[in-house]
Design a protein that fits this description.
Blueprint lengths: L13 H24 L3 H27 L18
């Protein structure tokens, strides 16, 4: 719910989340491979779990980017009255 106190041009930082997810994807994939080659199965499993989480986040971010700005109010949408109840 919009309260009227946020800027009308506020947008979610999806592009930043996209690049942070790509960065995390590279590091977790590298960590999984490195720990697997070093015979550290526990650490490889931990990095593999993080890899799955990062991949899910990356898919969601790309999905939101592809949806476009239709889910965000534009400048012509007035703010709602603040909830005083």
């Amino acid at each position: 719910m919009r309260t009227g106190s946020e800027p009308t041009t506020a947008r979610s930082p999806l592009r930043m989340r996209l690049w942070l997810s790509v960065w995390g994807l590279l590091w977790t994939a590298g960590g999984t491979v490195a720990f697997a080659l070093a015979s550290r199965p526990g650490w490889a499993a931990a990095c593999g779990t993080l890899l799955v989480i990062v991949m899910v986040d990356l898919v969601l971010v790309v999905r939101h980017i592809r949806q476009g700005p239709h889910y965000q109010p534009g400048r012509d949408v007035p703010p709602y009255e603040p909830d005083r109840g």
